[in-house]
Amino acid sequence: MARGLAHCAKPERYIQQLVSHWGHKYATSYDEGAEGSGGMGAFPFSDLENAVMTARPEGIAITLTTPDGTRSQHMRGVIERHIDRFAFREAPLTYEWSEQ
């Protein structure tokens, strides 16, 4: 499992756009969260790979689950490219990742 943070100004907006975009291909979901908390998007890419993205004041918190390190690196790139596409006014964003 990897945890990441994409520093950005409009995390909830970008998560909603990703849910809509990937929703054509995957069974994505979105939860607006409680008052004052950020929204959360879930992205089940396969039986073995998924991501959960949560809006935070400092950006998008990402929890990525993959079967191995090679797939983790690949999926990090996929996620970063897609977030940067929707955050084009701020892109390229700064990403921080750590393995858990």
Automatic annotation (TrEMBL):
Pfam family, one: DUF2218
Gene3D superfamilies named among the record's database cross-references: Alpha-D-phosphohexomutase, C-terminal domain
Matches recorded under InterPro entries: UCP028291
Organism domain of life: Bacteria
Name of the protein in its database record: DUF2218 domain-containing protein
